[in-house]
TrEMBL record, chains A, B:
Region Disordered, residue ranges: 100-124
PROSITE patterns: HTH_ARSR_2 (PS50987)
InterPro entries xref list: ArsR-like_HTH, HTH_ArsR_DNA-bd_dom, WH-like_DNA-bd_sf, WH_DNA-bd_sf
Name of the featured protein: ArsR/SmtB family transcription factor
PANTHER family in alphabetical order: TRANSCRIPTIONAL REGULATORY PROTEIN
Domain HTH arsR-type, residue spans: 1-86
Length: 124, 124
DNA sequence: CGAATAGGTAACCGATAGGTTACCAATGAG
DNA sequence: CTCATTGGTAACCTATCGGTTACCTATTCG
């Protein structure tokens, strides 16, 4: 499932937002969702397939964390829209300073991410 | 249908991208889609309900155009993610200059948009 | 060891998405 | 006026989504 479709579901958006704040275990994620744990589990699998989150097994627990690069297709698509639409992208105005400040670190982060980690990603 | 779900469909994304370049009639939009015109028509209705496009009747033709503000929920959500995720938002880096340059005009544009136009929007 | 906890998977089910064809109303052109 | 063009709507069908319950495995803890 592509990132766009993945973010089409409000529960999955909520999970992503939650994970953007901190990694979490499945039970904890399921705790503040109105649906059953298996349902959350499946949403997480989809998010992993979409490249938006990564799972890491720690003993009997599975910790999910956000994979920021998974959002690239979305931001890229928005960025690819013609000028008239880009006006809307300026909703990110408030972030300009911070984002630009962190750009260099982020490139390094992404590179490291691809090489060192051996975390799950597909098999949720 | 909310903008996220609306953009979850590749055909609709394509329509939005197309309309970001220029307004167009339904036939023209349907022309370069692999699906039937009624199907495109329904996609357009959904996009209008999501606030992403606006329709304007001109004689027997209906011209659809992009409504940039419809993307705000998306960019806002992305902007609302915690720092780690914002790194991905820097995919918009290349746009920073242009976006900031046009910010003022855009505010004016949005304001004008809400008051003067009386175009359709819901009834596709 | 045995019990509890974490979490994935399977089977099932109702609702919805998205496609098609057929049809209709309205406008514009010859 | 007549006919072609534009485009929405309805009815229908299939596939997929998202939820549930039931079940199983693996790890940790007393």
């Amino acid at each position: 499932m592509d990132p766009f479709a993945a973010l089409g579901d409000p529960v999955r958006r909520d999970l992503v937002a939650r994970l953007s704040r901190a990694p979490a275990r499945v039970v904890d994620l399921a705790a503040d969702q109105a649906i059953s744990r298996p349902a959350v589990s499946r949403h997480l699998r989809l998010l992993a397939e979409a490249g938006l989150v990564v799972a890491e097994d720690r003993g009997r627990e599975r910790h999910y964390r956000l994979q920021p690069s998974g959002l690239d297709p979305v931001t890229d698509w928005l960025a690819g829209l013609e000028p008239p639409a880009r006006f809307a992208a300026s909703a990110l105005d408030g972030l300009d300073l911070e984002v630009r400040r962190t750009t260099r670190e982020r490139s390094a982060d992404r590179a490291a991410d691809r090489s060192t980690h051996t975390t799950t990603e597909e098999t949720a």
